[in-house]
């Protein structure tokens, strides 16, 4: 592994801004989330409900490529709901089992609105061929036939609602936990500059329903590539976040090679590339990416940081994390949509064949704990799919009734046998007495 090189001057300024924001809300003064000088740009950023409605409409228009699940989980009086969209280019010539599986999560931190806008734009490009200026997307069409992509547009919906209600600088979920500190690898460790309003890890690993849903999705889907999308700077990160080194061996070299190629092809080598813990300037414990590499064994887990304004003041966090003018907004969206297309191509080219293992059907997933509220809304009302769903529900009811029947039969037999045993014992006692 090449020795770590110091960040370029722009990155140093971004790191300084990030640390200054942490200092602004340090434990001594962090009794409330500070306000942002710049408000949410309503002409650029859709409200969360509007954004999700637009995605659902997109799914309804493209049933041959998109499917959708809405999942809910909860505990201790707190619940979370999450939309999961699956892109699977239907081609009989490419079997699902040989496809590269990619999981993309956006909006893990509530204040990073630009990430969810990127998710929507990427879905448009995948399905309705929305154009990127100066790019011929037809060259990527063949690549998409070999991919199954799951997209979580807003991982932290409750936290996003808090931001839209006025807590613009808040990154936590609906009960004040940082979802990117709630995973189990090195969970709960606090650095000297620990700030609960930035990094509260929760009461235990996976205490939060949002993290539980994402953990179960990673177990069920078993992605080959994972990207957790954030804003605050421009960077392409690989593990680790909780220490300032990258993993050893060939897998680490493959990850670095993919990121360096994306950086060179799309960013002219201007992005930071390396481990999150080594490049950002501070260590993060209990992160999603470290769990997915160490525990879930995802071959290529990445963190993409897609935007940061190094000139924004530390009390203007919306501007720090989100573009506030149309030209910059469009540039960020187009540039990072292109980055994902290049990532898909690089991943397909780079992943060893022995890591692409058939996992069966990939369109839908069944959470181990969370409740599926809706599935494929656009297909519910008609045709063969509706009949099959009805048949599945009917079979489930029959199985339930059969179990209840067997249980009640067993209980009746047990009571009957007990009564006979008692009668025989009483008759025996009476004969002995006589």
TrEMBL record:
Q: What PROSITE patterns does its record include?
A: PEPTIDASE_M14 (PS52035)
Q: Does the keyword Transmembrane helix apply?
A: yes
Entry-linked Pfam families: Peptidase_M14
> What InterPro entries is this protein classified in?
At5g42320_M14_CPD, Peptidase_M14
Gene3D superfamilies in alphabetical order: Zn peptidases
Q: Name one GO molecular function term.
A: metallocarboxypeptidase activity
Q: Give the record's GO biological process terms.
A: proteolysis
Signal peptide location: 1-30
Q: What domain of life does the native source organism fall in?
A: Eukaryota
Catalytic residues identified in the record: 305 (proton donor/acceptor)
Segments crossing the lipid bilayer: 401-418
Q: Which GO terms describe its cellular component?
A: extracellular space
Query: What protein family does this chain belong to?
Result: Belongs to the peptidase M14 family.
The name this protein carries in UniProt is: Peptidase M14 domain-containing protein
